[in-house]
Design brief:
By secondary structure, the chain is of the alpha/beta class. The protein has 14 helices and nine strands. It has two domains: 192 residues, D-Maltodextrin-Binding Protein, domain 2 (3-Layer(aba) Sandwich), CATH 3.40.190; 64 residues, no CATH class. A five-stranded mixed sheet has the order 2-1-3-9-4, sandwiched between helices. The protein has a four-stranded mixed sheet with strand order 6-7-5-8. Strand 6, helix 6 and strand 7 form a beta-alpha-beta unit. Helix 2 crosses helix 9 and helix 2 packs across helix 10. The N and C termini lie far apart (45 Å).
Protein backbone atom coordinates (compact mmCIF):
# COMPACT_ATOMS: atom_id res chain seq x y z
CA UNK A 1 0.00 0.00 0.00
CA UNK A 2 2.79 2.42 0.85
CA UNK A 3 4.40 1.87 -2.55
CA UNK A 4 1.33 3.17 -4.36
CA UNK A 5 1.76 6.72 -3.07
CA UNK A 6 4.88 7.69 -5.06
CA UNK A 7 3.54 5.82 -8.08
CA UNK A 8 0.31 7.82 -8.01
CA UNK A 9 2.22 11.05 -7.46
CA UNK A 10 4.49 10.33 -10.39
CA UNK A 11 1.51 9.50 -12.60
CA UNK A 12 -0.10 12.76 -11.67
CA UNK A 13 3.08 14.67 -12.49
CA UNK A 14 3.38 12.90 -15.85
CA UNK A 15 -0.23 13.83 -16.64
CA UNK A 16 0.68 17.52 -16.63
CA UNK A 17 1.07 19.06 -20.08
CA UNK A 18 4.33 20.97 -20.33
CA UNK A 19 3.92 24.44 -21.83
CA UNK A 20 6.54 27.09 -22.60
CA UNK A 21 5.50 30.73 -22.45
CA UNK A 22 7.62 33.40 -24.10
CA UNK A 23 8.14 36.77 -22.42
CA UNK A 24 10.71 39.43 -23.22
CA UNK A 25 11.60 40.80 -19.78
CA UNK A 26 10.73 40.97 -16.09
CA UNK A 27 8.36 43.87 -16.76
CA UNK A 28 5.13 43.90 -14.70
CA UNK A 29 3.39 43.59 -18.06
CA UNK A 30 4.15 39.87 -17.92
CA UNK A 31 3.04 39.42 -14.32
CA UNK A 32 -0.33 37.71 -15.01
CA UNK A 33 1.14 34.50 -16.43
CA UNK A 34 3.95 34.54 -13.86
CA UNK A 35 1.31 34.70 -11.10
CA UNK A 36 -0.58 31.86 -12.79
CA UNK A 37 2.59 29.78 -12.57
CA UNK A 38 3.67 30.78 -9.07
CA UNK A 39 0.22 30.41 -7.49
CA UNK A 40 -0.42 27.04 -9.11
CA UNK A 41 -3.31 28.10 -11.35
CA UNK A 42 -1.75 26.40 -14.37
CA UNK A 43 -0.98 23.31 -12.33
CA UNK A 44 -4.61 23.26 -11.24
CA UNK A 45 -5.56 22.79 -14.87
CA UNK A 46 -2.97 20.13 -15.58
CA UNK A 47 -0.27 22.39 -16.99
CA UNK A 48 3.40 22.46 -16.06
CA UNK A 49 4.54 25.89 -17.22
CA UNK A 50 7.93 27.40 -17.91
CA UNK A 51 8.58 31.04 -18.77
CA UNK A 52 11.26 31.65 -21.41
CA UNK A 53 13.00 35.03 -21.74
CA UNK A 54 13.14 35.75 -25.46
CA UNK A 55 12.95 38.62 -27.92
CA UNK A 56 9.31 38.90 -28.91
CA UNK A 57 10.24 39.12 -32.58
CA UNK A 58 12.09 35.80 -32.19
CA UNK A 59 9.16 34.45 -30.17
CA UNK A 60 6.93 34.57 -33.25
CA UNK A 61 9.34 32.21 -35.02
CA UNK A 62 9.62 30.02 -31.92
CA UNK A 63 5.84 29.61 -31.88
CA UNK A 64 5.98 28.42 -35.46
CA UNK A 65 8.71 25.87 -34.78
CA UNK A 66 7.02 24.60 -31.63
CA UNK A 67 9.83 25.78 -29.33
CA UNK A 68 7.22 27.94 -27.60
CA UNK A 69 3.58 27.11 -26.97
CA UNK A 70 2.42 30.63 -26.14
CA UNK A 71 3.87 34.14 -26.26
CA UNK A 72 2.83 37.23 -24.36
CA UNK A 73 2.86 40.25 -26.63
CA UNK A 74 0.56 42.40 -28.70
CA UNK A 75 2.25 44.35 -31.47
CA UNK A 76 4.33 41.42 -32.75
CA UNK A 77 1.36 39.05 -32.73
CA UNK A 78 -1.00 41.41 -34.53
CA UNK A 79 1.72 42.42 -36.99
CA UNK A 80 2.28 38.75 -37.85
CA UNK A 81 -1.42 37.96 -38.15
CA UNK A 82 -2.23 40.81 -40.56
CA UNK A 83 0.53 39.52 -42.85
CA UNK A 84 -1.09 36.12 -43.02
CA UNK A 85 1.12 34.30 -40.52
CA UNK A 86 -1.13 31.71 -38.82
CA UNK A 87 -1.21 33.05 -35.26
CA UNK A 88 -4.10 34.28 -33.13
CA UNK A 89 -4.73 36.35 -30.02
CA UNK A 90 -6.37 34.12 -27.40
CA UNK A 91 -7.06 36.63 -24.63
CA UNK A 92 -5.91 39.95 -23.24
CA UNK A 93 -3.69 40.16 -20.18
CA UNK A 94 -3.02 43.91 -20.32
CA UNK A 95 -5.70 45.82 -22.19
CA UNK A 96 -4.32 49.32 -21.69
CA UNK A 97 -0.98 50.99 -22.34
CA UNK A 98 1.16 52.16 -19.39
CA UNK A 99 3.39 54.60 -21.28
CA UNK A 100 3.42 58.20 -20.13
CA UNK A 101 4.88 61.63 -20.84
CA UNK A 102 7.05 63.02 -18.03
CA UNK A 103 8.39 66.57 -18.00
CA UNK A 104 10.77 68.92 -16.27
CA UNK A 105 9.33 71.44 -13.76
CA UNK A 106 7.47 74.33 -15.35
CA UNK A 107 5.73 72.26 -18.03
CA UNK A 108 2.17 71.61 -16.94
CA UNK A 109 0.38 70.39 -20.08
CA UNK A 110 1.10 68.86 -23.46
CA UNK A 111 0.60 72.21 -25.23
CA UNK A 112 3.53 73.62 -23.24
CA UNK A 113 5.85 71.27 -25.15
CA UNK A 114 5.59 73.22 -28.39
CA UNK A 115 9.15 73.79 -29.69
CA UNK A 116 10.52 71.64 -26.83
CA UNK A 117 12.65 68.50 -27.05
CA UNK A 118 11.13 65.11 -26.15
CA UNK A 119 13.40 62.15 -25.43
CA UNK A 120 12.57 58.58 -26.45
CA UNK A 121 14.69 55.65 -25.29
CA UNK A 122 14.39 52.04 -24.26
CA UNK A 123 11.64 51.16 -21.78
CA UNK A 124 12.75 51.74 -18.18
CA UNK A 125 16.06 53.39 -19.09
CA UNK A 126 17.56 55.55 -16.35
CA UNK A 127 19.38 57.40 -19.11
CA UNK A 128 16.27 59.45 -19.68
CA UNK A 129 16.46 60.79 -16.13
CA UNK A 130 19.99 61.96 -16.86
CA UNK A 131 18.74 63.66 -20.02
CA UNK A 132 16.18 65.55 -17.96
CA UNK A 133 18.75 66.35 -15.27
CA UNK A 134 21.16 67.86 -17.77
CA UNK A 135 18.46 69.74 -19.67
CA UNK A 136 19.22 67.87 -22.85
CA UNK A 137 15.49 67.17 -23.17
CA UNK A 138 12.39 68.81 -21.72
CA UNK A 139 10.27 65.67 -21.55
CA UNK A 140 10.59 61.91 -21.96
CA UNK A 141 8.28 59.09 -22.91
CA UNK A 142 8.56 55.98 -20.77
CA UNK A 143 6.91 53.53 -18.43
CA UNK A 144 7.15 52.45 -14.79
CA UNK A 145 9.33 52.63 -12.73
CA UNK A 146 10.59 55.75 -14.55
CA UNK A 147 7.74 57.79 -13.06
CA UNK A 148 8.88 56.81 -9.56
CA UNK A 149 12.48 57.82 -10.21
CA UNK A 150 11.36 61.06 -11.81
CA UNK A 151 9.01 62.01 -8.97
CA UNK A 152 11.92 61.94 -6.54
CA UNK A 153 13.56 64.68 -8.63
CA UNK A 154 10.48 66.81 -9.11
CA UNK A 155 9.58 65.58 -12.60
CA UNK A 156 5.90 65.23 -13.37
CA UNK A 157 3.80 62.88 -15.50
CA UNK A 158 1.43 65.11 -17.48
CA UNK A 159 -0.19 62.46 -19.70
CA UNK A 160 -0.83 58.71 -19.73
CA UNK A 161 -1.28 56.91 -23.05
CA UNK A 162 -4.29 54.97 -21.74
CA UNK A 163 -6.22 58.25 -21.48
CA UNK A 164 -5.75 58.98 -25.18
CA UNK A 165 -5.98 55.60 -26.93
CA UNK A 166 -7.76 52.27 -26.62
CA UNK A 167 -4.67 50.37 -27.79
CA UNK A 168 -4.02 47.26 -25.66
CA UNK A 169 -0.51 46.23 -24.66
CA UNK A 170 -0.33 42.47 -24.03
CA UNK A 171 -2.20 39.34 -25.05
CA UNK A 172 -1.65 35.60 -25.20
CA UNK A 173 -0.57 34.61 -28.72
CA UNK A 174 -0.81 31.08 -30.11
CA UNK A 175 -0.50 29.42 -33.49
CA UNK A 176 -3.49 28.22 -35.49
CA UNK A 177 -1.89 24.76 -35.42
CA UNK A 178 -1.91 24.72 -31.61
CA UNK A 179 -5.56 25.77 -31.56
CA UNK A 180 -6.47 23.02 -33.99
CA UNK A 181 -4.41 20.26 -32.37
CA UNK A 182 -4.68 21.16 -28.67
CA UNK A 183 -7.82 23.25 -28.05
CA UNK A 184 -8.33 21.68 -24.62
CA UNK A 185 -4.84 22.67 -23.51
CA UNK A 186 -5.34 26.20 -24.83
CA UNK A 187 -8.60 26.54 -22.91
CA UNK A 188 -6.94 25.31 -19.73
CA UNK A 189 -4.17 27.86 -20.25
CA UNK A 190 -6.82 30.57 -20.63
CA UNK A 191 -8.56 29.46 -17.43
CA UNK A 192 -5.34 29.51 -15.42
CA UNK A 193 -4.53 32.98 -16.72
CA UNK A 194 -8.02 34.29 -15.93
CA UNK A 195 -7.66 33.03 -12.37
CA UNK A 196 -4.34 34.87 -12.16
CA UNK A 197 -5.96 38.08 -13.42
CA UNK A 198 -8.60 37.72 -10.71
CA UNK A 199 -5.87 37.12 -8.15
CA UNK A 200 -4.16 40.38 -9.17
CA UNK A 201 -7.41 42.23 -8.59
CA UNK A 202 -8.14 40.71 -5.19
CA UNK A 203 -4.72 40.02 -3.64
CA UNK A 204 -2.59 43.08 -4.27
CA UNK A 205 -0.12 42.60 -1.41
CA UNK A 206 0.80 39.06 -2.43
CA UNK A 207 0.91 40.06 -6.10
CA UNK A 208 3.42 42.77 -5.20
CA UNK A 209 5.54 40.20 -3.34
CA UNK A 210 5.55 37.95 -6.41
CA UNK A 211 6.49 40.91 -8.63
CA UNK A 212 9.33 41.94 -6.29
CA UNK A 213 10.79 38.45 -6.38
CA UNK A 214 10.25 37.93 -10.11
CA UNK A 215 11.66 41.33 -11.14
CA UNK A 216 14.34 41.32 -8.42
CA UNK A 217 13.14 44.70 -7.18
CA UNK A 218 12.87 46.04 -3.66
CA UNK A 219 9.31 46.07 -2.35
CA UNK A 220 8.92 49.85 -2.64
CA UNK A 221 9.80 49.75 -6.34
CA UNK A 222 7.61 46.68 -6.91
CA UNK A 223 4.70 48.39 -5.18
CA UNK A 224 5.08 51.53 -7.27
CA UNK A 225 5.27 49.55 -10.51
CA UNK A 226 2.28 47.43 -9.56
CA UNK A 227 0.15 50.47 -8.76
CA UNK A 228 1.04 51.98 -12.14
CA UNK A 229 0.23 48.78 -14.00
CA UNK A 230 -2.83 47.76 -11.98
CA UNK A 231 -5.40 49.82 -13.99
CA UNK A 232 -4.00 48.31 -17.19
CA UNK A 233 -4.47 44.63 -16.31
CA UNK A 234 -7.47 42.96 -17.90
CA UNK A 235 -9.89 41.70 -15.25
CA UNK A 236 -10.94 38.62 -17.22
CA UNK A 237 -9.09 38.40 -20.54
CA UNK A 238 -11.86 39.94 -22.65
CA UNK A 239 -10.89 41.08 -26.16
CA UNK A 240 -13.28 43.87 -27.12
CA UNK A 241 -13.92 44.74 -30.75
CA UNK A 242 -12.74 48.29 -30.07
CA UNK A 243 -9.39 47.26 -28.60
CA UNK A 244 -8.82 44.64 -31.30
CA UNK A 245 -9.66 47.08 -34.09
CA UNK A 246 -7.31 49.68 -32.59
CA UNK A 247 -4.49 47.14 -32.52
CA UNK A 248 -5.18 46.12 -36.11
CA UNK A 249 -5.38 49.72 -37.32
CA UNK A 250 -2.07 50.52 -35.63
CA UNK A 251 -0.37 47.46 -37.15
CA UNK A 252 -1.78 48.17 -40.62
CA UNK A 253 -0.57 51.77 -40.45
CA UNK A 254 2.92 50.70 -39.35
CA UNK A 255 3.08 48.13 -42.16
CA UNK A 256 1.81 50.74 -44.66
CA UNK A 257 -0.89 48.37 -45.80
CA UNK A 258 -4.20 49.40 -47.31
CA UNK A 259 -5.91 46.04 -46.94
CA UNK A 260 -9.01 45.58 -44.79
CA UNK A 261 -8.23 43.00 -42.09
CA UNK A 262 -11.15 41.10 -40.51
CA UNK A 263 -11.06 40.73 -36.73
CA UNK A 264 -11.27 36.95 -37.11
CA UNK A 265 -7.90 36.92 -38.90
CA UNK A 266 -6.21 38.25 -35.78
CA UNK A 267 -8.12 36.82 -32.82
CA UNK A 268 -10.07 33.67 -31.99
CA UNK A 269 -12.29 34.33 -28.98
CA UNK A 270 -14.17 31.01 -29.02
CA UNK A 271 -12.19 29.30 -26.26
CA UNK A 272 -12.03 32.49 -24.18
CA UNK A 273 -15.83 32.79 -24.22
CA UNK A 274 -16.20 29.14 -23.22
CA UNK A 275 -13.62 29.49 -20.43
CA UNK A 276 -15.25 32.62 -19.03
CA UNK A 277 -18.65 30.92 -18.92
CA UNK A 278 -17.25 27.81 -17.29
CA UNK A 279 -15.51 29.94 -14.65
CA UNK A 280 -18.74 31.80 -13.91
CA UNK A 281 -17.78 34.97 -15.77
CA UNK A 282 -19.37 36.40 -18.89
Amino acid sequence: MLLTVPVLTASKALAQDKIRIGISSTSPGFLPTVVAEKKGFYSKYGLSSEHIRISLAVAMNALGTGDLDYAITMAQGVSAAIKGIPVKLLMMTQDKLVFFLMTRPGIQKVADLRNKTIGISYFGSKGRIVSLDTGRVDAVIGGPPLNMWGAKKGYKVIAWAKDYTSLPQNAVIVTDKKLQQSPDQAKRMIKGTIEALRFLQNHKAESIDILANYSRSDRETAMGMFESYFPAYSPDGTITNEALQSAIDDAVARAKMEKKIPLSQVADRTLLTEAQKELGGK
